[in-house]
Structure formats: C-alpha cells, structure tokens
Amino acid sequence: GQQLNQSPQSMFIQEGEDVSMNCTSSSIFNTWLWYKQDPGEGPVLLIALYKAGELTSNGRLTAQFGITRKDSFLNISASIPSDVGIYFCAGQLGVGNTPLVFGKGTRLSVIA
Amino acid sequence: SAVISQKPSRDICQRGTSLTIQCQVDSQVTMMFWYRQQPGQSLTLIATANQGSEATYESGFVIDKFPISRPNLTFSTLTVSNMSPEDSSIYLCSAWSPYSEAFFGQGTRLTVV
C-alpha cells in the first residue's frame, strides 16, 4: 500500500526552540493533513493543505504543501511544553471521502 | 465541529473472546472508517464502514475477524473476534463529511491476555 516517509522519528528540544518535521511520498497526494495525538487520545487535526505550494498557518504552526505534491512540512515556532505529543502527517490520494494514509509519526518532547 | 464518542475507552479481554467497539457521531457524516494503531506505531486502515451495506476491508483485514456494522449515518461498530494477544492495540473510529476533514474518536485501548 501507499506509504508516507515521516522524519524525524523523534525530537527532544528545549522550550522556546523552533521545530520542523516533514513527510515525503513517492505518490502524488491531493490533500495533506497534519494531526497531533496526545496520550490516550485520538489524533486531532492541526492543519489541512489543498493546493501545491500552499503555505498555511495556525497560530505557531505553519505547514506547506510541496510543489510536487509529494511532500509536506510542518514547523512549530517557539515550542512550549503542551506541544509534547506525536505529530502525524496524512495524505489523501483521492477526493475528500477517501481514507487517509498516515506517516509513522514524529514524537516531540519539550524540555522546560 | 462534530464530536465522536467511542466506547469502551479501554478493555482487558481474555483470548478467544470478542469485543464490540461502538462509535457514535453527534451529527450525520458521509464516511466512517476504522483504524488500528499498534503500540508506538502509526494508524493503519482496517476498513471503510458503509451505511446500509458491507464494509470495504483493506488488505490483511477480513470480515470474519473484524465484522463492522453501520446501520445509519451517525453510528458504527467494530467487533474484534476470537481475540489473541496480537490484537492488543488501539482501535480508532474516524468520520468524514463534506464540511470537515477526517476527525477521530478518542480510541479504544484493547489488551488481550
């Protein structure tokens, strides 16, 4: 099946630092999504991207849909302790009602 | 935004038994999906729950092991049948409508002993 290559697998950063993570694929996706999962919870949508080259922000989060439609990155600026969690990229090959393909996740730890 | 209630949130089950997980959305949704998330891993799609017809299963998942129901546009169940320790995992319900991207329930953490 389709796979998304997400990196890094884990990160340990100091509070206040910026964070960057990315996903790549061999396939072209119509939509890229970024989710965050806290322990014991389901993933929560952070940002959705719909157009190649699109750059979208949500507070301290910024994500971009790669121009080739095969990659995306997520940046978190000025990290805080509540940013701790697992971040997943997800791609959608078809239209909106098709299921998502998920990356393996980036586990973020923030040291106060 | 719509909310999914999933239950049970966790359970410990004996091998050989079955567990049915319920997923209730507070509004009508077009699509519902079931995912499995093994410890420390990503989400893997089990099946798409189709309203009024048989679910569409992904490779490696079969109806006899994971029967799914979706009687209406707000509710679905996933049964994990004849469980073994390898079925220990988090099971997640997801929903999609034209008005929102896919959103998730809080998951069911299953431990099979």
Describe it for me?
The complex is a heterodimer of chains A (112) and B (113). Chain A is mainly beta and 112 residues long. Chain A has strands spanning 5-7, 10-14, 19-24, 31-37, 44-49, 55-58, 61-65, 71-76, 85-92, 101-102, 106-111. In chain A, the strands form two sheets. In chain A, strands 2, 4, 5, 9, 10 and 11 form a six-stranded mixed β-sheet that branches. A five-stranded antiparallel β-sheet of chain A has the order 1-3-8-7-6, with no helix packed on it. The mean pLDDT of chain A is 94. Chain B contains no helices and eleven strands. In chain B, the strands form two sheets. In chain B, strands 2, 4, 5, 6, 9, 10 and 11 form a seven-stranded mixed β-sheet that branches. In chain B, a hairpin with a 2-residue loop joins strand 9 (89-97) and strand 10 (100-104). Chain B is globular, with a radius of gyration of 13 Å. The model of chain B has no long low-confidence stretch (mean pLDDT 95). The chains are: A mainly beta (112), B mainly beta (113). Chains A and B meet through strand 4 and strand 5 of A and strand 5, strand 9 and strand 10 of B.
Brief descriptors of the model:
heterodimer; A: 112 residues; mainly beta; six-stranded mixed sheet; five-stranded antiparallel sheet; 0% helix; 52% strand; B: 113 residues; seven-stranded mixed sheet; four-stranded antiparallel sheet; globular
Write the layout of secondary structure elements.
The complex is a heterodimer of chains A (112) and B (113).
Chain A: E1 5-7, E2 10-14, E3 19-24, E4 31-37, E5 44-49, E6 55-58, E7 61-65, E8 71-76, E9 85-92, E10 101-102, E11 106-111
Parallel strand pairs in A: 2-11
Antiparallel strand pairs in A: 1-3, 3-8, 4-5, 4-9, 6-7, 7-8, 9-10, 9-11
Chain B: E1 4-7, E2 10-13, E3 19-25, E4 31-37, E5 43-49, E6 56-57, E7 68-72, E8 75-80, E9 89-97, E10 100-104, E11 108-112
Parallel strand pairs in B: 2-11
Antiparallel strand pairs in B: 1-3, 3-8, 4-5, 4-9, 5-6, 7-8, 9-10, 9-11
